[in-house]
Every structure is written in C-alpha cells, then in structure tokens.
Amino acid sequence: MILSALLTSVGINLGLCFLFFALYSILRNQPGNITVYSPLLFNERKAQQQDEFNLERLLPSPGWVKRAWQPSEDELLSITGLDAVVFMRMFIFWLWIHFCAAYVFTGVVCYLLYCEYNYISLKRIAYFYSSKRQPHQFTILVRGIPAPSGSSFSQTVENFFIEYHPSTYLSHTVVRRTSKIQSLINDAEKLYRKLGNLKASNSQQRFMRDGFLGLFGRKVDIADHYEKKLQDIEDNVRLERSSLAGEEVPAAFVSFKSRFGSAIALHIQQGINPTEWVTERAPEPKDVYWPFFSESFMKRWIFKIVVVVAYIALTILFLIPVVVVQGLTHLDQLETWLPFLKGLLSLTFVGDLVTGYLPSLILHLFLSVVPPIMIFFSSMQGYISHSQIEKSACTKLLWFTVWNIFFANVLSGSALYLVNVFLEPKKIPSVLAEAVPAQASFFIAYVVTSGWTSLSSELFRLFPLLCSFMKRLFVGKDDDDDFEVPQMPYHSEIPRVLFFEILGVTYFFLAPLILPFLLVYYCLGYIIYRNQFLNVYAPKYETGGKFWPIVHNSTIFSLVLMHIVAIGIFGLKKLPLASSLTIPLPVLTLIFNEYCRKRFRPIFKAYPTECLIKKDREDQNDPTMTEFLEKLATAYQDPALMPVQYSRSADGRSSPLLRAVEV
Amino acid sequence: MILSALLTSVGINLGLCFLFFALYSILRNQPGNITVYSPLLFNERKAQQQDEFNLERLLPSPGWVKRAWQPSEDELLSITGLDAVVFMRMFIFWLWIHFCAAYVFTGVVCYLLYCEYNYISLKRIAYFYSSKRQPHQFTILVRGIPAPSGSSFSQTVENFFIEYHPSTYLSHTVVRRTSKIQSLINDAEKLYRKLGNLKASNSQQRFMRDGFLGLFGRKVDIADHYEKKLQDIEDNVRLERSSLAGEEVPAAFVSFKSRFGSAIALHIQQGINPTEWVTERAPEPKDVYWPFFSESFMKRWIFKIVVVVAYIALTILFLIPVVVVQGLTHLDQLETWLPFLKGLLSLTFVGDLVTGYLPSLILHLFLSVVPPIMIFFSSMQGYISHSQIEKSACTKLLWFTVWNIFFANVLSGSALYLVNVFLEPKKIPSVLAEAVPAQASFFIAYVVTSGWTSLSSELFRLFPLLCSFMKRLFVGKDDDDDFEVPQMPYHSEIPRVLFFEILGVTYFFLAPLILPFLLVYYCLGYIIYRNQFLNVYAPKYETGGKFWPIVHNSTIFSLVLMHIVAIGIFGLKKLPLASSLTIPLPVLTLIFNEYCRKRFRPIFKAYPTECLIKKDREDQNDPTMTEFLEKLATAYQDPALMPVQYSRSADGRSSPLLRAVEV
C-alpha cells in the first residue's frame, strides 16, 4: 500500500466524520431526537417538554463540545457513576502516554500506570464511603447448596446460616428455575403493549390493524381478543408458579445484618467440601442475570472448559476473513488470484480504495459480529450478573482483537503458521521485528477507519437514529413506556480503545507516523464520550471501576510487546549488545506489574475490614436502617415471580412490570 | 554403560545394604546406642534404664521389621502425627501406582490420586476435630503495621484491633529484634554447659581442661572463672533488653478469643492499603523461626525476587558437576580428555566401577550440599516458621532435582543447550523421546545408589552414630541435657522419594526394567521409614499433612512428562496418528489436576467455617478455657526475651532455658 492509498482512506474518513459531526449538531437540536441523543435529559425533563421551533435548531453548532468539556470530573461522577469516570480517564491517560512516552518511555508509562492505579483505587474506596446503603453490600450468593434430605433447599440454607452465623444472618431467597414463566411474561408484556397502543389510537387504526394481522379471520373487536389472550397467559403464569414452588435451584441469595457479616461469610470457606456452599459477592438486584443460572460447581466448571475451547476455536477460525483482508492489501496477489479484476484495479482510485479503505472496513464489519458472541460465551460461563458478563466479554474481546487484528495481520500467515511461531519462543522477537514495521501503514488506515469513523458514528448514533426514525414512521409516535435509557456498551468499547493504545505503544518508536492519528483519535474520543456520558448513556449498574485492571494489564502487555520487538530489531540490525541490554526491560516491567497486582488488585476485589466496619458503624445509629433491612429481605426476588396484572391495569400509564423492575 | 557395569553397581549396593542392615540390627540392641536408634523410646524410658548384657544383643535379628510392620495407621498417627502418616502413605501409594499402572495407567493413576487427595483431606479435617486447643489456632501474625505517629507499635496494634474486632480481640505480642540477645544467650548456654560438665567431673579433669584451654595463662579455678563470665553475659543480656524496649518490629502476633475470630481477621483484608496489616496464619509457638524476621511487605517482596534469581543461578551453575558426572558414563570421552587414565580404565572392574557406580555416587555427594542451601534460601524469603521454610525448600529441591538430575542427565548438554531446548517447545517431545530412553541404565544405577543406599544408611544413621561414638570417646558419657529427639528432615527426604516416583512413571513404558528396582526401593522405604518414625523421629511441629499437594503436583508432572515422551516416541516411530491421539491425554490430565486443585486445595490452606464454629462451640462450655486464654496471651514470647538465670542455677539438673522453650 502506498501513500496515496493511505491518503484516500484518510480523506474518506475525514469526510464521513465531518458529515456525522454536522448532522449530529443539527439533529440533536430537534426535540424528536432527544431520546436518541440525550435520553438522560429526556428522563429528567419528561414533564416540561416544549416544542418551539426556531432557526437556530437547523444550524450546525459546536456548542455541545463546550458543554461536554465544562463539567468537572466530580460532576461527571455524580451524573454517570465511577465506571464512566474510569472510562473517561482512559482517554486522558493515554493522551499522557503519547505526550511523555516520546521522552522517557517505559519508566514514565509505569510511573503513570502506578499513579493511575493508585488514584483509581483511592477513588474506589472514596466511592464506597460515599455510597448509599445498597442491598448487594449486605448480600452474598451461595451456590452448590448440598441436596437436602427431607427438607427443601430453603430450609437447608436457613438451618446452615442460623447455625454458623447466628448473630449476622438476616434472610435468604432461594433461586428458582423461571425461564418458562419469564417467556410467558414476555408474551404478556408484548400483548399488553399492543393493547395499550390500540386503545390510545383511534378506531380507524384499530380496523386497519385488524385487517393487517388476520386477513382472512372473522372480524372481532381486536382489543377484546387481546385482553382475553392476556388473561389466558396470566392464568398460565399463576399455574406455572404454583406448580413451580418445588423447582428450587441449589442457589440462594443470603442477606446479612451488616456489611462485615456478609464479608465474613464471603471470604471464609463455609462447608468442608469446597465445591459446596460456594459463596460469591451478590450483584446489584437489577444487575442479576436470571436466564442462565447454572448453579452447581461441576456444571459451571464444565461449561467454563467448553467456553474456553469454543473461544479458542472461534479465535482461530476467525483468521479466515482476516487472511482475505490481508490479500486485499497485496494487490498483486489479488490480481493473480482473480485475473478478471485486473482492468478495474488498474484504475488508480479503485486500486487505492481497495488497498486503503476496503480491508479495514471489511475487518470492521466482521468484528462487529464478535462482541455479541463473546457476551454469549461469557453468559454460558455461569456469571450471575450483567456486569460480570460484560467484564469477562471485555477481556475475551480484547485478546481476540489482539490476536486476530494485530498478530494475524502482522504475521499474515495461516493459522498453523501463527501457532508455529508461538511454539518457538526464541524466534518471536526476530519474526516480529521483521513483520511489525511492515504493517505500519495498514494500522494507520485501521486507526482512521475503525477509530475515527467509529467515534463519529458513536456520536451520530446511526443505528438508534434509524430505529427511532422507522418507529416514528410506522407507529406514528414514540412509545414512552417502551423507552429505556441505553447502557454504555463497555464490553465492545473498552477493547477497541485499548487496542489502539496497544498499537500506539507498540508502534511508538517503529512508526511514529501513527502517533498523530492516534492523538486525534484520543482527543476526539475524550470529548465525544464525555458528551455521550452526559447526554446519552445512563449507568444501569455500577462495578466501582472494576474495569481498570484490564486497562492496566493491556498496557503492560503492550509495553512488553514493544520491548520484544525492540529486542528483535536490535538483533536484526546486528546490535547484540543493545539487544541484550533491552532484555532486563520486559523483566523489570513484569516485576513492576507483579508489584502493582499485589499493591492494588485486592482493593478491586473486595473492600477491607476498615471500610466495612466504618460504614457499618455509620448505619448503627441510623433510624432508617430497620426499614432498609426489611426491604432487603425481598430485594432479590426474581422479576418473573413478582406480581403481574396486565388484564386489569391495561389502561394505566406505566406497566406494573416496569415498576417492579425499578424496585 | 553395559550390563556388567550395572551389575557391579547393584552388587556393591546390595553388599552395603546388607552390611548396614546387619550392623543396624546388632547395634540397635546395644543400650549405648539408644539415643541414635530409638530416641523416642529413650525419652520415655529415661528413668527405667537398664544395662544388662546378653548374647542376643550381638546377633543380627530381623525383629525390628516385625515391630515396624505391626502398628496400624491410627497408632502411627497417635505416635508420630499426621505428617508422618502422610509421608508413609506416599510409599503405599506408589507402590500401588507401579502395580496398577502396568494395566490401566493414567486413568488409574488419576483415580488413585483423587482417592488419596480425598482421603488425606478428610484425615486433615478429622485431625482438626480431634486436635487439642492450641495457641496457633487462635492467633494470626500481622505484618506491615503502619508506622505509628507518637505511640508505639504495640499501641497501634491494640487500637486497631479494639476498633475493628472489639468482640473477638484478646491480646497481642509485638515482635522485637533480638538477634543480639539471642547470640549472647547462646554464649551463656555454652558456658553454662561447660560449667555443668566441669562441676560434675572430678578435679583431675578440671585441671586437664584448664591446661587445654589456656596453656600459658596463670592458674585459676576454672569453675569460678566461668561463673564470673556467665554473670557478665547475663548483665549484658539485661542491659540489651532494657535498651531494646524501643526496638519494636512492625509485626505482631495477635490472639483472639475464638478460632473463628482469628479466621475472620485472617481472611479479610484489614487495612485499605493491602501491603499494610498483612495477616497470616500464626505457626505453632515452638515452630516460629525468630532469627530472620523480615517484617515489611517491600522487604519481603524484594528478598523473594532475590531468592528466585539466586535459585535460578544455582540451578544453572549446578550443571557443571552434573556434566562432569555425565562424562564418566561415557568412558571413551573421558579417555580422550585424560589419556593417562587409559591404562587404569582398561581394567574391566575399574571401568565398570567408574561408569556404573562412581557417577551416581558423585552426584549423590554433590546433592547432599543442596538441601541446606535451599533451607537458607527459603528462610531468606521471610517465612516465619520452620515448617513453612521446610515446605518451601522441599518444593525448591524437588524442581532442582528434576532439572539437574533428570533433564541435565537426559539431555546431557551445556546449560545453554538445555535452555535452548526449552525455548522451542515444539521440539521438546522429539528431543526427549530420543534422549530419555538412552539414559535408562543410568537411572537404574541411580535408583540403586541413591535410593537403596540412602535408605539403608537412613536406617543405619551413619552420621549420628559417628557423632554419638565420638562424643562418648571424648566426653566420656552422653550429655543428657544436650540431647534432643531429631526431627524428620522432610525437606530433603520428600523430594528424593518423589524424584524416584517421577522416574518410575516416566520410565514406566520406556524401560520397565527400572520398575523392579523401584519396587524394592519402595518396599524397603516403607518398612524402614515406618521403623524410623516409631523409634527415631519425633514431630516437633505439625502441618496437618500440608505436604500432600506437593506429592500430587509432582505426580501430575510426571504423568504429563510421560505423555510428552510418548508423543515424541510415536512421532519418531512414524506413527503420527498415535502421536496426535496422545495429545488430548496431557490436556485431560491437566484438567483433572485443575479440578483436584479446586476440590481439595482449599482444605489444605484453611479450615472452613463449619469446622471452626464446631470446635469453638465445644470450647464454650469448657471450664479450662479461661485458663487457656490467659496462657495464650504469653504463648508467643520470643525465647530470647524469656527470663534466664544461669549463674545461680548452674548446679540444677535442667537449664531454665530449655524449660522455657518447652512452654
């Protein structure tokens, strides 16, 4: 690929970016788009909606940049939670790496990493101190409850905890298998919505809809028909529930009277058999992932192995599209394979397009399929909360990206060749040193396509905009009940940002040309995500910055990768002394990493006694505590087991289900 | 090496073994040797000593075999503790491997491993239930106490635990730096012993000794001189102690009112900074290793890295003697290097001796230097108890042996060559498959020399016998106060036994000729160590079978090693299908190992709530509990800080220091 191809790619993407920015600043001023661009605002100001029209609304304005920049970090924290702040700090921090790394490098990177880790762990403690009483702080999840002889699981749990934690045990909720009920409820919910729409709309629409749904059926009042169906489903739900009372799963949420009490049960092995009474921190009630609740130790363990195998298979099979993409950057090879394209490819622009823009676009499209697969893998592993699933998918996706985008492109060979390279560790530095610099231009193009464009399309929110547009076109109006503020897709965004960081550190001294592109990416990203956090995404659950260790580890990985490439390059350039002198650097970096792991990691895993007891003491004199503990006993109810009543309340404004979820 | 060389080696060692056995069965009947062969008996029957002479005492008899066989496992447990039982079971178990492995192999080995792990973990729990109240069950060690502002460490510890563990905290003992005092006390003890001997002996000896010590000094009553010196030292000790009051170390033993209370403080991170208030299980008071008490997190961490580097350096440097030994087995090479030996080596017997017996003897001698070095390394790492140091040294020694004896001999190349082999994992199977079978005869010789002879010399106790003999010759009588029942040197014995097991599993289908030799070794070992546990060794401290995971891991390692060799051999023999079909075997073995680690490992790390609370409940109604808790407060006193008074009590039978240690 030559410079012109690179420039074509940059040009196309710059154009796209400006288009998106311009459209964004116009569209966001349209009140109809408020659910797309400022759902947070929408939720707050639902009441005081106004629909004036003025000319300003049609002018592109950079005002959102100012508004996204202004709030301080603490304000951001209060609005969007610590996860968002941690995510934002990723941008500042890399920014800093690319400013400083040019001068002092690994030392500075490590120093910054240390400071950041320290800063975020202090923030995490401060966040805990300032947090309100929350059910998950008082609760643990117990899995692998041994099969009871004669009594129910519920009785077994109660006996066990009354026996061994008499002073702190409060209550428990045994988990039940509810997938059937859940699907019935989902059906009911859909029907309920349709019914609601139907009642709100006029009779003409009702007739239209009738014809639309059952062209050859006899004409009945569709609203009555729906209501009858709804009642049937509700009866089914009730029936299922009563028959299901015995279908307990050997897992339970156990609540304690104090945070320290739950920490005691969490940290100390409970039963003699370590695969029974397995304790785990409970997630926030709304964060619980009910559908796939695998409870026994063996089951989870086997699923984990299955997932690891499937993950490896996917990672290796994914090399096929990557190799195809690689073919595109080598035009000459493509021409020999597909001779009929010769004429077309000889046009300069087409050639540049194919080598410069197409490969990274195709890669980008293929990659967009992967995050849902990773989420599926992680949910199979038996994690009990959305946040854990996201975190696990995030790690999976990161290494998937590194392997498939970085190594596969750099080494540009078959899967077997790749695996072979990694089976001979001695050769790795020299192979990488030859291959990595050769792919610099591809990665610059990748930064521009995948980075810049994805950032601007993130701002533009193309897909939600289309959805919203279609809905308004067909349904006629936005369905307010249906509307939910979106959650930041951390699992797909973090690996992308981190991958650029790995590129930046690795190419730092091989092809510094990549740095300005990355710099633009980080600056853009900083301001765009700030804007999105303030206007678009709402935190559904809060992990307290648990994503940070992933960031830390990937930075260390990229540093070591850079060192290995450096060793290889010094070796290739016949500077064995320099090569040998570089060897201690990765060793020292890994030792530094080990130190950080010991120094900070425990804070991200659990809160220490000091914090727990202090928070508990605060509660002791609080009169609202009894009320909270009463609520706590029912906090971990499966939403499928909560009371539903659609048929009677069909004309109420908000559905009981939505209310139940918000408890 | 040819068959005759092997036979020579077997012959020599058989001879040595029979000699040792014969001598043992005669010498053990001599009352004078009771401290060497049955110190346990000696301690018990000190009072009822009798010195009759009869002819039977001079006849070799196999009666000890019967006596070593008779006691059941439970009796052995009651006499020598669980560690001894675990050690004994190693012998039965391998025995079993070699019986069964011939038929069903890996599956059976894994099944047996699982059963053994299960059995031992159940034993461990049962041991805990049946154990008496012991101070270390109620105590934790806290290191990294943050520097106090204004107050002492002792005050800081008290404040912290009263604040955060008000209901369970009992007392604490801050550790002090006492190496100076300890050396003074040692001096005093030596003097005290001399004085005791002097007083007990007649005046002629007193005169002799005087001349012996200071040939040109003026003649004084040596007893008075010693007593004065002793008083000086005692004054010094008192002075040091008073000046040392401030020299506290930021570490303390903290005792709690219940076992569960100490478990809570142990398992939950205490301070916000994970490198402060680092908690750790306290060892038994007499197991504490006082001299090298490194207290801060950073210091221990740096020492650990230093030890790792030193360990690697030693392991690699040790290849030099190994290579020399290797040279001996290749006579032709030796002859080219040292041509003047040609004449000597051409004698068949000398040649056989050099190739058959000498190499493993030299190796054996070199190896005997290593255990003390490993103990030194482990003590540098900052472990606080003798048992932890032993366990760590045991692991170090095992991998040292595997690397230096197995790999270095098998691959018989320079250190660099060895490292190179392991940097190309793809080649490992084929390289091993070529080299491992070639060295079978060397390892058979090694089993015979190192295994058989070390077992019989273990029974014969050559070194202690010589010591005892010399002492009697020069001092005239055994010094009873000086006498201590020896402790089983697990750290050097376990790696040796395990190494033979690794050899057995690895050579199982390459050179089954090694199996009968190993079988003899295990049968011998079983009966000899049973004898030694019953008669010689006393358990000084008890880890509750914590050595077992090392045994388990090394068996898994040897299985995987065998699989790799098998893969290589099938590859060499052009059976790629068989080779590929073997690949899942090590993977499955490792998965099995992972399962065992999850299923059993936690039991070896800590006792679960269920056990702790049950034991605590038992104590609640026990009237002796208050008395125990009072004693607990002073259980972890540094022996150097206990009252000593030699000068006055110099004519008493037992020294106050020895009494103090036994508290």
TrEMBL record, chains A, B:
Its main location: membrane. Keywords: Calcium, Coiled coil, Ion channel, Ion transport, Membrane, Transmembrane, Transmembrane helix, Transport. Residues 181-243 form a coiled coil. It is a multi-pass membrane protein. The chain crosses the membrane at residues 7-27, 91-114, 301-325, 365-385, 397-419, 505-529, 550-571, 577-596. Residues 304-570 form the CSC1/OSCA1-like 7TM region domain. This is CSC1-like protein HYP1 isoform X2. It comes from Herrania umbratica. The lineage of its organism: Eukaryota, Viridiplantae, Streptophyta, Embryophyta, Tracheophyta. The gene is LOC110426744.
